[in-house]
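Pinned message: reference record for Nickel ABC transporter, nickel/metallophore periplasmic binding protein
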Amino acid sequence: METPLLRRSLLATATLAWMPQPVSRPRAATAAARSLTFSWPVNAGPLDPHGYSANQMYAQSMLYEPLVRYVEGGGIQPALATAWRQEGRDWVFTLRRGVRFSDGTPFDAAAVVANIRAVLGRRQNHAWLDLVAQIEDAEAVDAGTVRLRLAHAYYPALPELALIRPLRFASPAVLRPEGGVSAPVGTGPWVLAETVWGERDVFTRNTLYWGEAPALERVVVKVVADANTRALTLETGEIDLTYGTDQLDGDTFRRFATDPRFTTAVSPPLATRMLAVNSGRSPTAELAVRQAIQHGVDREALVRHVLLDAEPAAQTLFAPNFPYTDLGLPPFGFDRARAEALLEEAGWVRAAQRGGSRRKQGQELAFDLCFVGSDALQKALAEAIQGDLARIGMAVRLLGEDAATFYGRQRSGEFGMIFADTWGAPYDPHAFLGSMRQPAHADYQAQRGLPMKAEIDRRIGAVLVSTEEEHRAAEYRWLLTTLHEQAVYLPVSFLTNKLVYRKGFGTVPFGDTRYEIPFAQMRRG
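Predicted structure (tokens):
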């Protein structure tokens, strides 16, 4: 299951059963000039390129590389493959010559086949990604050529091969027969040199890297779980950079933006921050209730007062800059009177005293809104949404719980509304829609009460293997229009990455995707 919050799962205390590359120890002044200190809420994890929970995506992308690379704007460029062609249903890749893993093992067709078969051997772990279901096998044509045999002519194959996980490559020497890796060994520009659980991870240059060496010699990732503490460490110079969606709260980011000592930047929209609304559980099983929620929440006020204008308000599940998503769907604008009229027409009547919650046939119009209790931003948004919906007669119970319980609710459907977000490029819309067919996802649970749920799932499967562009576009229009009209998602805003660093630090670009932090392109001075 691939969700952003899984990447923040807390890690149990453990020790690494491998010997890292030695950390060079130059003079302090030289080390500082060639080092960057970053912060993240948890340790990087075991860094299995085929794994999910406990593996942090930014770190997986530092060590492991794909056959092809996604670049901003939707392009696909060479990575470990220098050329590719489609032959019927199959894809044939020419591999980059002279590449070695950081343990010295050659990267060749045998290594590609070993990794892909390791993924295929545990298909159930990757059911969210349709490409894994489509791959029948990988074959080494020769040492420098690989053929992927697919069951169908799957159109999103290249974008899904570019994802951070699960189709990236570890040294065959560290692949375990039972799954996972015995050590984090990839072909990327970095190696994990040190881990101290609860304190830090240290990444150093991969001395065997085939490409241009990073300007930095090392990246120190300081574990800082709390956003307020993270801001303090940035102020005092203990860290050089914060980067991500919610690393700092809105007030703190705005303060840094007006502080002449710091440089701040906000990326273009990357994904959608939203809540899933449960169509399989009363009272949100009623379309009128879901539509009233859409009209009853003031998104512009949420963006202005909670998100502090760091993210634009969203009215649709996907931003219009993704493939097949610029459909001109009519928004559910903020209209409290319309929301109340929908509820009245559906038989939800207010109590005698104005301001109370509505009832119908003895049932109160009440449901749970679930969020991660330690996430201050989710809590603030939940409280604002609760207030908006109270004004139209809905009693919203806020449930802020630990991450494990939160994910359990996503899987079981025990929610009225629950926080979620889309995944951004290159996942959206195809991979995100593909995952909607998996019961372990909040999307499946939110949609399971829809009368056309089986048709939605059937059409998702069909569009992913469609070979006709016009037919594909028409299918996406039906799918996205249906989900929009059924009001099973409450879009709040389009997510952005935000970065803060001290002025004069040097060059800090944004990555091509939401989850990749381009440390290899950063430089000091």
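Pinned by admin. Summary line: The first strand starts at residue 35 and ends at 40.
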